[in-house]
Each structure stands twice: as structure tokens, then as C-alpha cells.
Amino acid sequence: MGMANSSALKFTVRRQPPVLVVPAGPTPRELKPLSDIDDQEGLRFYIPAIHFFRQHDGRGDDPVPVLRDAVAAALVHYYPLAGRLREFEGRKLAVDCTGEDVLFVEADADVRLDQFGAALQPPFPCLDELLFDLPGSSDLLETLTPHSFTFRFVTRLVCGGFIMAVKIQHAVADGPGLVQFLAAVAEMARGAAAPTVRPVWGRELLMAPTDDDLAGAPRTFAHREYDDVPDTKGTIVPLDSMTHRSFFFGPREVAAVRSHLPPALRRGATTFEVLTGCLWRCRTVALAPTADEEMRMICLVSVRGGRKPQQSGSVIPVGYYGNAFAFPVAVSTAGDLCTNSVSYAVELVMKAKREVNVEYLRSVARLMVRRGRPHFTVVRAYLMSDLTRSGIRDLVYGWGKPVYAGPAKGGVGAIPGVASFLIAIKNAMGEEGIAVPVCLPAHAMDKFTEEMSKLMRPAFGALRPSSADVFPRIKSAI
């Protein structure tokens, strides 16, 4: 298990005044309601992503005008992203497609790419200089009336490389939706006339059905991810009181964790389920809650590619860029989680995750309308999202593939510090694996590392798994 601490690297970023990029052609003026999944409280924040590019041989032009023009061209097709958010009765959100703009900032930094280290992964030094907040831009409605859904920052480095950072309002697009938009920008930057994947709005697909639309009683789901749990013991820790580190899991580390599972579970659990169960248990031990406290492991599970019973087509069409995932939760007392083996946590994660399908997501939509669009429960909760197959690191804008592309930091969300991600990276030795950024109070991080180290040692007598057992297929979601 490799581990990265925050670097002591310091540098100065000189920013130009922000400019507003408008669509390169005319766009419709209309009001487009978001789905009842999109506008829940837990998605009313910005997703930050960051890309690091080396200097590309044979190309010495400035990336700023190329990327700025590519954004303008992509906005013709993704014109709702140049609009503004409006809230209506029942806290219902809609996009006012005004065709206004997205915000674009160019900058220069007195730092070379190699100074960031051989293995790029969160946390990144001086991140607030590369991906900064405009005054008041964190407030969803008051500031999104004058401000954009999307922010883009391009910072040139002294070595000829550059950093591109992006923020997009989560209520409008999920992780795959963000990558789809970025793919369109990448294609436009390479000279395409239109994106290969045409965007689909289609938010009516995930609207809560009216009584007239329901054919028979829908299946009932508990939806414990939306339990009303008071934070009576002060378990939500401010982000600025936390330590940020990334942990690397290559094939050897994943195989070691799997060796602690019974044979059937070792073969049947995905890498996401294995690592999530492992991290949940170790995090709980590190936080040392009382034995009777309920701990929650929230898994982001996408329904993209899912099918209705007795139908051949996918419910979520190709090109859909709205939110198409659920927050199923595994629940256990801290005592059971800490005293049982890691297989107990893995099995709970598997059970929660595999309950999700389109019917489940539509049940969430009904809950949102009925209960006023609540936030998922964050008290004594930990949230995990798999981004290893998002495709963001494969996008080519014209300067080769990025050295790193993915989340800018762990702990992002409406409640900072709760979330982690599985991110596909290459470590300093060139080994492909998974980085997991973790945020914990400083006093708990050392204990967490100690507990993780125990699971990095293969169980006594365990056979070395085949490569097929180390990284089985994982389903991405944000």
C-alpha cells in the first residue's frame, strides 16, 4: 500500500481576469426541469476535476485559446450548461436556458510539472490556487443566478505543460455526464464539427410518476440512506480539521485484502466491494465510536446500462448526462463492524449495492417529491464512488493523454470530508492501480493506516490469486 502526504511544494499562480465564454452559435431559449434525482439536496454542489498535461512534442501553441474556443463550440450542443438555475414550488429546480456563458480563467504558475512528484494523485499542493472559488460561488441559488454552471481554469506551467481544472454543478450532471461533456470539448479542440456522442436531456425519465402513471403499487424500498439521524455526538468533523492522504492499491495490495475473505466471497466480490468494505471497517476502528453507534457505508451505484424487465433497450439512453445513480447504504453497529472480520463489511456492501436498479431509482424520485428533496444521511457515514472506468484519463485534447485526470481532492460534497473515490492511476514505478484519497481527523489517520497495513499482509496460507481475481469488472458511478 503506497501512501502520499500533502507536499510542501509552494508556488505562485498569476491569474488573468475571468472571461465569460458564450456558445459559438445560437441556442434555444427554454426552461428545462431537472429530474427528481438531479435536484435532491445532496447534489447541490460543484464537482471538481483536474488534469495535468506534459509539454507535447511538436506542439508549442498556447492551449488557452484552443480550449476556450472548444468550450464555446461544445456549448452549442450542451446549451443548458450555459444557462442559469431556477427554483420553483416544492424546491423543484429547472435550468433556464439563457445561452449566457460559462466562466473561463487563464493563469500562469512558476512551477514545473515534475515538481509535483512522480506519481500524481490527490491531495495536490496549492489546489486552491488552481481551482479557486469566486466570491460567493458556493451558494447554489443566490450565486448561480449571476454565475455559471461550469467553471474552467487553465494554468500554464514554466516547463511547457499545463493544468486544466473544471468545476460543474452536480445537480445538472453526474460524473459520467461531466466526462461526456469533457469528451465533446476534447473533440472540438481537435477540430471536430460535432461531438460523437450527441447529448440527451431526457430528465423526464427519472421524474416521480404521478398517481395516474402508476400501474399497480410500486415495490417498497427502505431507503435508509435518507434516514433522519441527529448528530448528537458531534461526528461531523469540519474539513479544515482533517488530514488528507491518498492510499495506493496495486494488484498485490488488492490480492492481499482478498486473501482475508472466504473463498466464495473472494471470487464473487468486485474490487469496489472488497476495497469499500475494507476501508469502511478500518475507518470505523480508527474513529473509535461507541459499540452501539450505527455506522453507514454509502455506495454510489449507477443504473446506466440497466434494463427494464422484459425489455431489450437501456432505460438510460446513450448521451444522457443527468444524474443516474443512487446512494444505497449498508448499516451496522460499530461493535459488529469492528469485532467481525472484513468479510462481514464486504457482504453488507454487496447486499446494499446489488439492490439498486431503475425501479429503485424511481422509488428515490418518489421519496424526493414526498419528503421535500432531503440530503442523504451523513451522520456516522462514509461515502465511496468508483471512478476507475470513468474514461476521463483517456480523453485527448490535442496535447496527448493527461498524466493525471480525475477528482481534484477527496472529501468533496455538500458535507465535506465524508466522500472517497477509487481513482485509476499509475504510481511512481509505472504500476497501474487504484488511488483512494481519504480525509480523517489527524488523530485517527495513524490508526487508520495501521489497520489498513494489517490487511495488506496476506492471510496465513492464502494462495496467490490469478490476475483475473485481482481486478474484476467494476461499475463506475459518481
* Mean residue pLDDT: 87
Multimer state? single chain
- Envelope shape: globular
Q: Order of strands in the sheet with the most strands? A: 1-11-19-18-16-12-15
Beta strands, count: 19
Give the helix tally: 12
What does the model show?
Helix 1 packs across helix 4 (175-189) and helix 7 packs across helix 9. This protein has 478 residues and is an alpha+beta fold. The protein contains 12 helices and 19 strands. The chain has a 7-stranded mixed sheet with strand order 1-11-19-18-16-12-15. Strands 2, 3, 5, 8, 9, 10 and 17 form a 7-stranded mixed sheet that branches. A 3-stranded antiparallel sheet has the order 4-7-6.
Summary keywords:
about 475 residues; alpha+beta; 7-stranded mixed sheet; 12 helices; 19 strands; disordered N terminus
Summarize this, please?
The protein is an alpha+beta fold and 478 residues long.
Summarize the topology.
Layout: E1 2-4, E2 13-15, E3 19-21, E4 30-33, E5 46-53, H1 63-77, E6 84-88, E7 92-97, E8 102-109, H2 127-130, H3 140-144, E9 150-157, E10 162-169, H4 175-189, E11 242-249, H5 251-258, H6 263-268, H7 271-287, E12 294-299, E13 301-302, E14 325-326, E15 329-333, H8 334-339, H9 342-353, H10 358-371, E16 381-386, E17 404-407, E18 419-426, E19 432-441, H11 442-456, H12 467-470
Parallel strand pairs: 8-9, 12-16, 16-18
Antiparallel strand pairs: 1-11, 2-8, 3-8, 4-7, 5-10, 5-17, 6-7, 9-10, 11-19, 12-15, 13-14, 18-19
Helix pairs in contact: 1-4, 7-9, 7-11
